[in-house]
Design goal:
The complex is a heterodimer of chains A (261) and B (737). Chain A is of the alpha+beta class and 261 residues long. In chain A, β8 and β9 form a beta hairpin. In chain B, α2 runs parallel beside α4. In chain B, β11 and β12 form a beta hairpin. Chain B has 737 residues and is of the alpha+beta class. Classes of the chains: A alpha+beta (261), B alpha+beta (737).
């Protein structure tokens, strides 16, 4: 969620039950402002909170002018001091899938695994965050648009989805470089608008049904929750500009999803 | 493209009004020339590409010759181009066809007026020009004729029939006009073709197609108006989206005072229902005296206060949502005879979510409903008993006694009485505050046992079937109730000492060590210091009964015979009792501290095993402004502690403030396990019937054996009747078979 509209966003995303206490909120407001200034980001998003056993990680992302460029990730333990997460090497990526279990809350904690080296929790957090972000960060259709020169911009005339559009999964896109777009048939591509439909839509996510879409607050708010990564909540107030997503969870994938549907 | 008819042959086709209009247009076109004069770059024609008739281009040619002295070269060039352009379009029959002759005459006449009226019209020119162009702009555009500048140059090069309309070409726009500009052009017929071109262009833009009523002209007008009204920064970059928005707005007019927007209908309905919540509470405020009396008696707890504390801990719903829930619970309290109630939490579902209220009825109130339910089930059992008896009678009639199956279904464990064990409280659910509350049925042990084996998301509809293996006995309402029971049993905690047992210790022995099942508030509870609560888990205890593997809180021997069972097959049961003795199941007694929970390494210094610790170390939050995680030294502000349960993550939290504590659950309703869910495997294949003297499995004799047997029999027969010829013949026949 945008750091600029943090309070409203937290209010709207509170339907999932996890939020932030007032002291955290206040410190987030000020610290994210400073982060934006120091790192010269165009936009700062508060990504969410990974629950650990001892402490929680608060994660923020910084975006540059081009919205689809790789985002910088920062973490904090107390919402006041932010530091860049060290990127994980490729070996770590492979190892991370092996190390299971909850996060501890201490970035210097080393996971022990008999076969492989110890994995630093800081890297694990980073990698996990990247994975989750790629999988389930979403954007409503029309919020970003692509110019012929390449960079993706925020659409300042985005007025929100209508109610009927808001209930369809096809109106939401993954906030990442498209993966499946090329596989579409020409017939499907003919209906797309190249300036708006340049990302993957949620319709074709596998497994089907891994998104729960609900109206809350008496139809005034549409909330999407991911069932594959429980804890990710996306909200959008139809016909308004407000939208955003936040992840509050343990950082683990729900591998039992096919049994649960 | 016909030939150019000679001048005199062209009859005056213009009606007089046209002429006057042309005259006025001429004025306008003349006025157009004025601003043209003002701007050197706009010295081009206004709209030369319009389909203009080219009558008398030769005349113009002559005109230009005549007025070549007056006109700068640019205009001559323009005229030449006009001529070349107009020539082919002569026969288009465009309504703005006009006669060249009168023009030429009038132009000559007017040529003299140019210098005198030049300055006058210069001022008028701007306004009239804009009138002509139907300006809806709030202020005059800067260069309205800019686009028209370019037509000329390209048109000459392409020489198309009516010249393509050249779009914005930055290269051309700023090229210094080699054509100069007609300063004080006395050429009136020149503006006339210009103005005609304008008319043509405008008419073209005003075309509407069959598919839509909006013409390009109107659309552009709307678009430019919108831009000028809103003044976005960097309009060029948002041009496309503005374009789209304008189009959308045209086809979706906003205000319709007669009809409501059909899309918003469900939203409005929901808002109406929620409004009813508010009005009801407002109605109660009218009788203030009544309010004072009721305040002490109202069973609904102060949800706003607990919500506030939960918010401090970072858990819970937003404040307006909490308020609506509060109103909804008040409504529930009015509708049902409630003794105490509590907001249990929220269970998220795929399509809708559930808000759960934990309720305790007043004495004697709920029995009526339960009896109905029991009668239904008992009726079913009686039917089954009849069926079995009939089956037995049929079996006895047949000669062959079909072996009776040895397998008997496991005895149904009776569910617990209401107000005890897992059914201690009643639960009401609703999907959103404002919608009616639905009561959940009591949970049976079978349902709990099955709920432990499956893991399914809730859809949000109470009557949805739960399709799973092992098959769940019930629909989503039952599954929901079972999960609520499990969650309550596992995660509801209170500080040590808050509850104490009632002083009836003599019952322990009689119940067979099943444990005490009732507690009451300790009036002497003084609160435990915050630090102690944070440090040790022994200070927190469960105050709900643990659910045994059997599915109940109090153990019941399933082999106890009820009266019905004794009538049927008594002998068989006795025979089977021996190997099926069931051990009594014992669970941790009530008010067990959390440190006794399995896997919790409270004593060791290391971090607890993440997979097994049932309660996470508690986090300490302090209200004191400016301090985080500091103990309240100076100000004894109420401290809020929150704990998250590891087994039920996603907000199973609780908070403490002085002497208050509260539990809440918000989440998907499933237990956490680090390993993946392993569904139950199907049961092993049943054994076949045991071999005994009555039934023995043997392989069928093969054909050779049968024939050999037959042959042997026949030989035996033949030996006894060797002398009869018929027998030999029969043997021959038989052997042939």
């Amino acid at each position: 969620m945008d750091a600029d509209s943090l309070l409203l966003s937290l209010e709207l995303a509170s339907g999932s039950g996890q939020g932030l206490s007032p002291d955290r909120r206040a410190s987030l407001l000020t610290s994210l402002m400073l982060v934006k200034r120091d790192y010269r980001y165009d936009r700062v998003l508060f990504w969410g909170r990974i629950l650990g056993l001892v402490a929680d990680y608060y994660i923020a992302q910084g975006l540059s002018e081009d919205q689809l460029a790789p985002r910088k990730t920062l973490y904090s333990l107390n919402c006041t001091e932010w530091s860049l997460l060290p990127p994980a090497t490729e070996e770590m990526v492979a190892q991370l899938s092996v190390v299971k279990g909850r996060f501890m809350g201490d970035p210097s904690y080393e996971y022990e695994h008999t076969e492989l080296q110890k994995v630093n929790e800081g890297e694990k957090v980073f990698e996990e965050e990247i994975v989750i972000d790629k999988a389930v960060a979403i954007i409503p259709r029309g919020a970003l648009f692509k110019t012929p020169f390449g960079p993706t911009h925020v659409n300042r005339t985005f007025e929100g989805l209508s109610l009927s559009e808001a209930k369809k999964l096809s109106s939401y896109f993954h906030f990442r470089e498209p993966v499946e777009l090329k596989n579409k048939t020409l017939l499907e591509k003919a209906d797309l608008d190249p300036s708006l439909d340049f990302m993957d839509s949620l319709e074709h996510d596998i497994p089907k049904g891994s998104w729960s879409i609900q109206m809350e607050r008496g139809n005034a708010l549409v909330v999407l929750r991911s069932l594959l990564w429980p804890g990710l909540t996306f909200y959008h107030a139809p016909r308004t500009k407000h939208y955003g997503y936040i992840y509050v969870g343990t950082g683990e994938k729900n591998m039992d999803l096919p049994f649960m549907l | 493209m016909g030939d150019l008819p000679p001048y005199p042959e062209r009859p005056p086709q213009q009606p007089p009004d046209r002429r006057t209009s042309q005259a006025s247009q001429r004025q306008y076109s003349w006025d157009q020339v004025q601003p043209l004069a003002a701007d050197p770059e706009e010295g081009q024609q206004i709209a030369p590409d319009a389909q203009r008739n080219a009558p008398g281009w030769s005349q113009r040619g002559s005109l230009s010759q005549q007025e070549s002295l007056l006109m700068p070269r640019a205009f001559q060039a323009e005229e030449a181009r006009i001529g070349s352009m107009e020539y082919p379009s002569m026969n288009t029959g465009f309504p703005l066809e006009f006669q060249p002759q009168p023009y030429s005459d009038e132009s000559r006449i007017q040529a003299a007026e140019v210098t005198t009226s030049l300055m006058q019209r210069l001022q008028q020119g701007q306004s009239s020009l804009f009138q002509q162009l139907d300006s809806t702009f709030p202020e005059p555009p800067v260069n309205p004729l800019d686009p028209f500048n370019l037509y000329q140059t390209d048109q000459f090069s392409e020489g198309a029939q009516h010249g393509p309309y050249i779009r914005d070409d930055p290269a051309l726009q700023f090229s210094p006009s080699e054509l100069g500009f007609p300063h004080y052009s006395a050429e009136v017929p020149e503006p006339e073709p210009l103005e005609l071109a304008v008319q043509n262009a405008k008419a073209y833009l005003l075309q509407t197609s069959i598919s839509c009523d909006l013409s390009l002209y109107e659309h552009l007008v709307n678009l430019l108006t919108k831009i000028l009204n809103q003044r976005p920064e960097d309009p060029l970059s948002v041009l496309e989206s503005l374009n789209r928005t304008t189009q959308w707005e045209w086809f979706h007019p906003k205000l319709d005072t007669l009809r409501d927007d059909p899309e918003m209908q469900p939203t409005y309905e929901m808002a109406e229902k929620q409004k009813a919540l508010f009005t009801r509470s407002g109605g109660g405020a009218e009788g203030e005296q009544e309010m004072e009396e009721e305040v002490g008696e109202t069973p609904v707890p102060n949800i706003m206060e607990t919500a506030f504390y939960f918010e401090q801990a970072g858990v819970g719903l937003s404040s307006d949502e909490s308020f609506r829930i509060f109103l909804a619970m008040k409504q529930l309290a009015e509708q049902q005879p409630i003794h105490t109630c509590r907001f249990w939490g929220k269970i998220l579902g795929m399509n809708r979510s559930y808000l759960v209220a934990e309720v305790e009825f007043r004495e004697g109130e709920e029995e009526a409903e339960e009896e109905e339910v029991e009668e239904m089930t008992e009726g079913g059992e009686v039917m089954e008993a009849h069926g079995e008896e009939e089956g037995e009678e049929d079996e006895e009639k047949t000669v062959d006694i079909i072996p009776k199956p040895v397998w008997k279904p496991p005895p149904v464990i009776p569910k617990e009485e209401s107000r005890s064990g897992a059914n201690k409280y009643l639960y009401f659910v609703c999907n959103e505050p404002g919608l009616p509350w639905t009561r959940l049925p009591h949970v049976t042990p079978a349902q709990i046992v099955n709920a432990r084996k499956i893991k399914k998301f809730f859809t949000g509809y109470l009557d949805a079937p739960v399709v799973s293996y092992p098959p769940f006995p019930g629909n989503e309402a039952n599954y929901l109730r079972a999960q609520i029971a499990r969650i309550s049993a596992a995660t509801q905690v209170s500080p040590l000492g808050f509850y104490q047992f009632s002083e009836e210790e003599g019952d322990e022995e009689e119940e067979g060590g099943a444990g005490r099942d009732s507690y009451e508030e300790n009036p002497d509870f003084e609160g435990i210091p915050v630090l102690e609560l944070v440090d040790s888990m022994a200070n927190w205890v469960h105050h709900t009964q643990h659910i045994l593997p059997q599915g109940r809180c109090t153990w019941v021997n399933p082999l106890q015979k009820t009266e019905e069972e004794e009538d049927l097959g008594e002998e068989e049961e006795k025979a089977d009792e021996g190997p099926e003795e069931v051990e009594q199941e014992v669970g941790p007694p009530l008010l067990t501290p959390l440190s006794e929970d399995a896997g919790c390494n409270a004593g060791t210094e290391g971090l607890p095993d993440p997979a097994a610790s049932p309660l996470l170390p508690l986090h300490h939050r302090n209200h004191a402004p400016g301090t985080l995680d500091h103990p309240p030294v100076l100000q004894p502000l109420p401290a809020v502690l929150s704990g998250r349960c590891a087994l039920q993550p996603l907000a199973g939290g609780l908070c403490l403030c002085q002497r208050q504590f509260e539990n809440i659950y918000i989440g998907w309703g499933h237990k956490y396990s680090p390993e993946n869910f392993n569904p139950a495997l199907p049961a092993p294949i049943q054994q076949e019937y045991p071999s005994g003297p009555e039934i023995m499995e043997m392989s069928d004799p093969t054909v050779e054996e049968e024939q050999a047997l037959k042959a042997a029999q026949e030989q035996a027969l033949g030996a006894t009747e060797e002398e009869e010829e018929g027998e030999e013949e029969e043997e021959g026949e038989e052997t042939d078979d």
